[in-house]
Amino acid sequence: MAATGPGRPRRGPGMTEVARAAGVSQKTVSRVVNGEPHVSPEVRDRVLRAVQELGYRPNNAARALLLGRYRRIGVVSLGSALYGPATLLLALERAMHRAGYSFALAGTLEGQPVQVAVEALLEQGVDGIVLSEPIDDGAPLRLSADVPVVSLGEGVEVGQGRSAVVGADGLVAARIATEHLLSLGHRTVWHIPGPHDWWAARDRVRGWREALAAAGAPEPPLPVEGDWSPASGYAAGRQLAGLSDVTAVFAANDDMAIGALRAFAEAGLSVPGDVSVVGFDDIPAAAYLSPPLTTVRQDFTAVADRAVDVLIAMIEGGPAPAERTDIPVELTVRASSCPVREPAPPLR
Q1: Within 10 Å of residue 252's Cβ, how many Cβ atoms?
Q2: DSSP assignment, residue 102?
Q3: pLDDT in tens, 245-271
Q4: What is the pTM of this model?
Q5: Quick check: bond before 284 cis, omega within 30?
Q6: Angstrom distance (rounded) from CA 281 to CA 247
Q7: Is 263 helix (H, G, I), strand (E, B) or coil?
Q8: Short-list 201, 146, 140, CA closest to 165
Q9: In whole angstroms, what is the distance from residue 254 CA to residue 171 CA?
Q10: Which intervals hold domain HTH lacI-type (predicted)?
Q11: Mean model confidence pLDDT for the chain
């Protein structure tokens, strides 16, 4: 029997003690702890109560040796407080917990290669990685990893593991927003872009351009590049307010659209009477602005759920998933967009 005297830590309760307290076998405890099926709700509750009362903590290293998996998924994220990345991160954590996997996070610092964060996760021990990394240098992203990787943006080349892409199609979303404004009779649509080193911003610019080209509409020059903040949208809005032919604006996110609304109001332009405005993301405040904002809604929960499903299928050796899975987006039409106002007839 091992000594437990001074200087030697006391061993915590093990699976045997949990099984005894719950009146079940160790195999049943293992199934509950690992989130496996074929356990009745009553037995599962009994085991979980015993786990909580005894303070049992599974030994991840031992479990990995036994099962060949850690039941832990790593996420590489920018760690941004912006609505989109933050909402997606929370949705990923919830999806992993529902699937019986724990969540490990590695943030990237500005200018730091994504591979550094990947290595930190691999050292912790993860079964797969979700790459929620919205910034790059424009070059194809190549990683070295021996676990599956799901990217929530651009495709990624993984040296030893399998990879897939899951996300809302930014090109389609931007086309939908632009086509909505064109359908209201606007001659063209101006765009307030996000920072060019974000995948999402580049996709939205491309989708905007594709919609204009398909409609035969002229492509106006881009105003000052935004950084997703209301302040940058305000700066771009002031620039656009000084142009006489601006009647429709698509902003790459709702926060920049809010800044543009303020700039137009200060310039004496009414929205949507003089300028129609469409945003992107459908933040909670969008429906309560004055006027309420027309915007493109992404289903972050659906993206996270699908990403985790695809990754777990790869972890468990399932069939190779599609290279890319796009989650549908939805245009929410509110009062900030309307048909273009006909110019007043000349005086006689």
Answers
A1: 32
A2: E
A3: 999 999 999 999 999 999 999 999 999
A4: 0.78
A5: no
A6: 22
A7: helix
A8: 140
A9: 17
A10: 13-67
A11: 87
Instruction: Give the residue from 99, 77, 98 showing the smallest Cα distance to 88.
Output: 77
Residue 302 clears pLDDT 70, i.e. is over it: yes
CA 267 to chain centre: 35
Residues 298 and 84 sit within 8 Å (Cβ to Cβ)? yes
Here the tokens at position 12 are 């915590």
Furthest C-alpha separation in the chain: 107
Tell me the domains of the chain and their CATH numbers.
72-168+300-328 (3.40.50.2300), 170-298 (3.40.50.2300)
CB 238 within 8 Å of CB 210: no
Number of Cβ atoms within 10 Å of the Cβ of 194: 29
Q: Which long-range contacts (CB under 8 A, 24 or more apart) does 305-310 make?
A: 305/91, 305/95, 306/166, 307/92, 307/95, 307/130, 307/150, 307/152, 307/166, 307/167, 308/73, 308/92, 308/95, 308/96, 308/99, 308/101, 308/130, 309/99, 310/150, 310/164, 310/166
Q: Which residues contact 7 (CB under 8 A, 6 or more apart)?
A: none
Helix 41-54 vs helix 26-33: angle between axes, to the nearest 10 degrees? 90
C-alpha radius of gyration, the chain, whole number = 26
The label of the residue with tokens 């610092």 reads 109
Residue pLDDT, tens place only, 103-158: 999 988 766 788 888 999 988 889 999 998 667 666 677 888 889 999 998 778 88
pLDDT of 61 above 70: no
pLDDT surpasses 70 at 21 = yes
How is residue 19 written in tokens?
A: 């099984």
Q: How many CA atoms lie within 13 A of 91 on its CB side?
A: 21
